[in-house]
Write a structure and sequence with these properties.
The protein has about 260 residues and is of the alpha/beta class. About 40% of the residues lie in helices and about 20% in strands. The relative contact order is 0.10.
Length: about 260
């Protein structure tokens, strides 16, 4: 339940068009709904500004469906990550309208009647990735920030093996409000970007690389030991966490400055 929904509920009680008993019934499931296998946090958007996100890995399609149906009763937009096509088809067959991003493995659901773009995208989050193999993590970050309401631009395949590709887009780097840098192998791209801009950089190590990268541990350590100031690091392959944090910083900055990408 959102702040707006609660305000509407209270106004109806004040106007006498809704009984106290009915209002209590509507608020009864405010903290969470217990589905047995999951306790769905219907209160999260009110606390944090965005609904609970469904992490699909390890869940059956029916479990994801039950959680999505519960969230759709309370929220105008639902994000699911690490989703499969099977899960997407299960949701669609049950009447839930949504978009599946095959690369990002994300599903964005909007209950019937909700416009595809409910709010104007604001600010500028620039998502950068080193190579094509890093795209799944980069796209997860981009979709997350976009779904939450940030304007997102993408700059892909600009790794340090061909640094001239990145330098070609210096103007785009400088115009961004916050940058998400996704890289595997040795993970040096985050330090390079951090040394070129005066904005926050969120570094995302990926598990892309040969054996000595230890499934993303090598780029994680490189990013943690970055010489560039202003670089923060999330966990290996955590595009969702990077996109979420980028949005929070972007919208916090929205209240104190107006920076446009275009």
């Amino acid at each position: 339940m959102t702040r707006h929904q609660i305000e509407q509920l209270l106004r109806k009680v004040k106007a006498g068009t809704l009984s106290i008993e009915a209002a209590v019934e509507a608020l009864r499931a405010l903290p969470f709904e217990d589905l047995g296998f999951a306790k769905v946090d219907t209160h999260r958007e009110l606390r944090t500004g965005f609904p609970e996100v469904i992490f699909c890995a390890g869940k059956t399609p029916q479990q994801v469906l039950s959680i999505a149906q519960t969230l759709s009763k309370h929220h105008q937009i639902i994000l699911a990550t690490h989703a499969t096509e099977e899960i997407f088809h299960t949701l669609r067959e049950a009447g839930l309208v949504g978009e599946y991003n095959e690369i990002a493995r994300t599903i964005v659901l909007r209950p019937p009647g909700v416009r595809e773009e409910p709010t104007e995208k604001k600010g500028c989050v620039l998502v950068i990735c080193a190579g094509t193999a890093d795209l799944p993590v980069a796209e997860e970050a981009a979709v997350t920030a976009e779904t939450m309401g940030s304007y997102v631009e993408r700059l892909y395949d600009v790794g340090v093996a061909g640094i001239h590709r990145l330098l070609q887009y210096r103007e785009q780097l400088w115009k961004a409000r916050i940058l998400v840098v996704v890289a595997g192998m040795e993970g040096a791209l985050a330090s390079v970007v951090g040394g070129l801009v005066d904005r926050p950089v969120i570094a995302v190590p990926t598990s892309v690389g040969y054996g000595a990268s230890f499934g993303g541990l090598a780029p994680l350590l490189t990013m943690l030991n970055s010489c560039a100031a202003g670089v923060a690091v999330v966990n290996i392959d955590n595009g969702f966490g990077a996109g979420y944090f980028a949005h929070l910083v972007n919208f916090l900055a929205e209240s104190v400055e107006a920076v446009e990408c275009a």
